[in-house]
Fold:
Amino acid sequence: MDLELVTIGDELLLGFTIDTNAAHLAREFAAIGVRISRRSTVGDNPEIIAAAVREALHRTGAVITTGGLGPTADDRTKPVIGALFGRSMVLDDAILVALEQRWLKRFGVALPVSNRQQAMIPSNCTVLNNHHGSAPGIWLEDDQGRWVAMLPGVPREMRGMLADTLLPRVRDRMQARGATESTVVRSRTLRTANIAESALADRLGPLATGVNGLSLAFLPGNDGVDLRVTISDVPAREAERQLSEAARQIQEKVGSFIYGSENDDMAAIVLALCGERGATVAVAESCSGGLLGSRFTSVPGSSTIFMGGVISYHNASKVRELGVSPETLAQFGAVSEQTSREMASGVRQRFGTTVGLSITGIAGPGGGTPEKPVGTVWVATDIDGEVQAVKAAMPGDRNEMRYRSTQLVLDRLRRAFHALPASAGWTADD
Structure:
């Protein structure tokens, strides 16, 4: 089954709001064997909305829209699509009463006049209940079996309604058409760190263009390069079997550069490894400015392992808070192997932890020199007094380099715990 998505809103076209709804819808429908054949985004112009939905209906006969169901003048989705089906707008008394009760209960005031618009629906439609907000969804279908499902644009409401109402409805519709065992579109993602996309392709060799007929995508980002293998049009059990085999083959080629799968986070993985070993961690950060500590504290339960950190941005704080030698700074500079080592050891001793991690670098856009250009980063790990440091030449802008430096030092600790060999990629030799 194919369908199209039309996301609606001027804010999406202007770039003020990122369209996360389309990506979520595509993933959820792929899991039940429904292929999103096209995605489009339009503004709050009635003629353009009508044209986009009309054309999508002509191509697939199945369309989902998000946005434009609110109470303001720019919320035009319902009347525009209703007109495509030849339906007039009518007041739904049950929706109006529910809205009035909702406002009294939540805000203690009467329903604003503008919100009455949300109780106006196309005649002879099916209302999709919204248990997560005020705007009801709408299902419209013609005598040819073509349909449009209208969902609100607020991501929390859209996701809740999708799970509660729309996915079960579409699944039942597919089964009613005689599907005995539905096929699916499934993906498996393997996450890599500290290796460039081109180096990954070299390691994979022939697998870089696909694994046993399954497509393979390279998805570079600040965490590293994700490898996503995808299969479609097979039953769920067979999809899982083939994906597992493809992941095994990729793992054989890529090896220790793979640190996790799907949405695994390196900070959470490292904290789990520390927990298994009874280790505690403290961090000393210069160019990353607290980002490493923030990543640790974003993980629930991290307080039993992460003891704290020092943002030693200025050289004086490196000396005062971490015990870095003034002579080291004078001879080698703040961005150096020697300074990174002393920072890691200093923070470990200050907090009395098993592990000390440090980051110092030049994040730019200024401050670089021919010897130490922008993107030069040193990170170090001190594990029970054994100190290792590595230099990296980070690509990207200031924020990208800061984040990548945290990923690098986390990966260094992961490798040390697993006794893995030193990595290639952004780093030079130890």
